[in-house]
Specification:
The protein is an alpha+beta fold. The protein is built from six helices and six strands. Helix 3 packs parallel to helix 5 and helix 5 packs antiparallel against helix 6.
């Protein structure tokens, strides 16, 4: 029960250990790697119908906590897909804002949606604080 918005990408969170094989697979499938770091990679296919794939790589305690808190929701064609908790989704949005400020307004709207539907405000606030973005959190909180 998320906020519907038409996007042209697929967001994936996976264990960091699979990064080399996943990037190799995407490139064999015709995706160009736009960015690659230890925590993120972005890939774009020249065929617009195949779109963009954004990957977040996690490991250790972060991976354990994130994957333990996923829940299965119906995805395309009714196929179940694991979805991170609202708090973990917010954490990924905070990191996206920090790493690419052009995403700020879009991602803050998503975080507001998550908070309005019950995401733990203290937990989400802590992600903003950890990344030096507390003022952005306070902006969102004032609109709730």
């Amino acid at each position: 029960m998320g906020m519907p918005r038409t996007t042209l990408d697929v967001d994936v969170v996976t264990d960091a250990a699979v990064q080399p094989e996943l990037v190799d697979l995407l490139e064999r499938e015709g995706y160009e790697t736009l960015h690659r770091s230890s925590g993120y990679s972005n890939h774009l296919h020249r065929d617009p119908s195949r779109g963009r794939v954004d990957v977040v790589y996690v490991s250790g305690d972060t991976a354990s906590a994130l994957f333990a808190a996923t829940r299965l929701l119906d995805g395309p064609g009714g196929r179940p897909i694991p979805v991170p908790s609202p708090e973990h989704l917010a954490a990924m949005k905070v990191l996206a804002i920090k790493n690419d400020p052009s995403r700020t307004f879009q991602d803050l709207a998503d975080i507001r949606f998550l908070l309005a539907r019950g995401a733990d405000r203290q937990v989400v606030r802590s992600y903003f604080e950890r990344h030096g973005l507390l003022e952005r959190y306070l902006d969102v909180e004032r609109t709730l």
